[in-house]
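Lab meeting notes turned into a lecture example. A postdoc, R.K., suggested we walk through two folding results consecutively so the class can see how the record format repeats. The first protein's sequence and structure tokens come next.
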Amino acid sequence: VVPLVADFLLPGNLTDLISQSSVTGGAGAYLNPFMNGDRPYTFIEIFSQLAWGFGYCGMPHVLVRFMAGKNEKELKKSWAIAIVWDLLSLTAAFAIAVILGETGAASSESVFIEMIRKVFTSELALPFIGGLFLCGILAAIMSTADSQLLVTASAVSEDLYHSFIKKDADTEEILKVSRITVIVIAV
């Protein structure tokens, strides 16, 4: 929603900004998947980007979400939702980069916050809506953080404690180790 609102509220629209782009290689560089600015991608660049993209699917905090599925039918639905969401979010990220890149760039770590600031502190200021979008950032951070905590706790309690330290540990003891791990890692 934020890039769409920005496209309407900020000066110029996405199409105009792409056509007026000052990026190396011109406007075509934004839309050409085979060019890195004014030159073709090298094998190493292609390999690195594919590794990063496909590697996301194997990240522990992502896999934990799929492992929590109740059955195979739910897993298939989750897979489809995840693919659609990734396509939407990456397209929105592209749009934000283009819009902000031409209207006063922000650092890559704060680009979404900068977009919200520019859109929701204009004459049509809607600070409450801007606050909701900022809450979305915190929700995403918390979701990833809790998944990382669960993966870490599971690895310590099951893979280390139960497998190597105390093989005859009961469920209650493993749960206790898991909880202590969460507290220690969180602190």
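The second example is placed directly after the first for contrast:
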Amino acid sequence: MSAGLPVFTCDLDGVLCRPPLGLNLGIGRRLEKHPPEETAPPLEFRGLNRLIWLTVEWLRYAGRLSMPDAREGLAAIARRRKIVLVSGRKELARPWVERWLRRHGLRGYIAEVRLNNTRLSTARFKLLAARQVGAREHCDDDGPTAIYLAENGISRVYLRQWLMNRGLPYPPNVVVVRNLLEVADDLDRLAAAADS
């Protein structure tokens, strides 16, 4: 289905997964200042630390709904791009992430799931993952992450609009969208412009 298509990376929380009570309070405001990484050693959880993280990750998914446009938006994007889900969630959360995606009918649109198994910050991990899969575009809900990706080689970054990500110094290659259908429309416009 997605063989030969350009790669598009997409965040999970705040883009596909609805925040608790519809309030996206986890969005940061502090800009990432560390340089990008080419590789990162894996992070391992053991003993009590592992149990605590497993519990936290399970609780984060309890009862979470998908965004209203998630399925339709992913379907529209998947016509033009190979979608790779890139999340700052820990690798420990993979069973819950996979289950959540299947439960909401989203897994079929996603070619690969990459979760943060490193000590890197979320922004740095997402940039590393996007580079590893050769992504040209990314969609996120976190303003500082969008800026970091846009300033470090991702040619077009779609920022899902939330109250908490307004007013940051976004570069011109960050495109603010209200939903994933707007992302798909923009990709269609770019393709039409390239064909003409």
